Amino acid sequence: MSAVFPTTVNDAESIAFIVSEANKDIAQQFNIKIKNAPKHPSFCTTSWVLSEFERGEKYFLYKDGNIPVGCIALLPSGLEGFSPLLFNLR
């Protein structure tokens, strides 16, 4: 069964993996390196995700059975509430 679940800081490693893997092909295609674009999502780490949690970002994991295969990040955006970002491995 596939479903979307809210996350906690305990999911930071899974979130970082999904975000990084979902963006690596873009980094390779456009020759994006950590030296010239350190905040590109292909370089996402667990500590990066944890700092985003501290900033108020909300994450949701999409799981295929028990396997996380996608995530949604809701970014705090002032008066409008949250802006969504979607990262998917499939």
Written overview of the protein:
By secondary structure, the chain is α+β, with helices and mostly antiparallel strands. The chain has a single domain, classed as Gcn5-related N-acetyltransferase (GNAT) (Aminopeptidase, 3-Layer(aba) Sandwich), CATH 3.40.630. Helices cover 31% and strands 32% of the residues. It is built from two helices and four strands, in the order βααβββ. The chain has helices spanning 12-29, 46-55; strands spanning 2-6, 58-64, 67-76, 82-88. It has a four-stranded antiparallel sheet. The relative contact order is 0.24. The mean pLDDT is 89.
Concise overview:
The protein is of the alpha+beta class and 90 residues long.
List keywords for this structure.
90 residues, Aminopeptidase, four-stranded antiparallel sheet, 4 strands, alpha+beta
CATH topology: Aminopeptidase
Summed over residues and divided by their number, the pLDDT gives a mean of: 89
- For the biggest β-sheet, the strand order reads 1-2-3-4
Task: Give the percentage of residues in beta strands.
Answer: 25-35%
The number of distinct structural domains comes to 1
CATH architecture annotation: 3-Layer(aba) Sandwich
Output the structural class. Answer: alpha+beta
Question: Runs with pLDDT <50, length 5+?
Answer: none
- Alpha-carbon distance between the two ends: 15 Å
Rg, Å, rounded: 13 Å
**Helical stretch tally:** 2
- The CATH superfamily is identified as Gcn5-related N-acetyltransferase (GNAT)
Class, according to the CATH hierarchy?
Answer: Alpha Beta
Order of helices and strands: EHHEEE
Largest sheet descriptor: 4 strands, antiparallel
Helix content: 25-40%
